[in-house]
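Much of our argument rests on the idea that a fold can be written as discrete symbols. Part of our work consisted of pairing the sequence of a single chain with a tokenised description of its backbone. The amino acid sequence and the backbone structure tokens for this protein are reproduced below.
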Amino acid sequence: MSTAEARGVFHRARGRTLDAFPSGKEREWKGPFYFIQGADPQFGLMKAWSTGECDSGGDEWGQETRLTEQAVRAVNRLNPKPKFFVLCGDLVHAMPGMPWRKEQTEDLQRVLRDVDSEIPLVFVSGNHDVGNVPTPETIEEFQQTWGDDYFSFWVGGVLFLVLNSQFLYDASRCPALKQAQDQWLDQQLSIAGQRKCQHAIVFQHIPLFLESIDEDDDYFNLSKPVRKEMVDKLSKAGVKAVFSGHYHRNAGGIYQNLDMVVSSAIGCQLGKDTHGLRVVVVTAEKIVHRYYSLDELSEKGVEDDLMDLLKEK
């Protein structure tokens, strides 16, 4: 499927919002619901990682294709249906301008076309999607292919914010774009800060931190000054959770009542976790989440204790 064809299949964020959820109908709390979070299908990484050619490899992605197909089947079987399925970045492995990027993208879009049409897809940009050091050109390519790189949407009285975390990592080649996201985020957080939403939840690719706010800077987290500024800003506004990927392992921690959730990958695993997805239940009082392997979710579905939370008034 070409990028042009994908535009007719997926709800893509435009104008900094997602038309799958008309905000006028979704700003009121209507009771508990759940969504599915995935991260890093990253078509091409498994071959590149196995050969030690992470920068130039990635000419095969059959394993990632099969795993993402399994993820789609598992999500489609869920009953009741999740409100949406969010993919937290690194959709494909090939960086902008690298070989195989077009083919990886088309194959991923072909697989995702099979997601139930009643389960909107939410796309988050990762470093492999816009580049480690993004430029206006790489951002434009992402927007044309997958939709806006940052945006907000409402579901059942909950405000969801999707951020481009590469602007927080290195915006040296697109400072004006970073400034625009910063200003937009402040406006969105003012809504959350006035408690006009039941909860506020953030999606981004790179975690603020992996386990602790004071951990050392690493490839897989944001620098200390940036993460502390962001955590203070988000927690002050009442944001309850940040969901991310990037680490290809499960991790996370809590700081100032902010739950930093790091989910492992649909695709290549860099630790001891399994290929999987995270089920996230949103109730009036709390956000409860659990990571499932693709096999577990496919064979058994979501466990009763999580489903029971959906019955709360």
Q: What stands out?
A: The mean pLDDT is 95. The radius of gyration is 18 Å. The longest helix spans residues 175-193.
